[in-house]
Amino acid sequence: MQSEEKFRYEEHFKTSKFICKCAIKLRLSDTTLASACVLYHRFFKHCSTTEYDTYTVASTAIYLATKIEEEHMRLRDVVNVCHRTKHPQSKHLEFNAEFWDLRDTIAACELLMLRVLKFDVTYIHPHKYMLHYLMSLSNLFHRRVWETNPISDVAWAILKDSYLANSCLDFCPQVHAIAAIDLAIQSCKVEVPLSNKAETVWWKALYNNCTKETLAHVKNEIVEVYDISSDVH
Question: Whole-model pTM?
Answer without folding.
Answer: 0.90
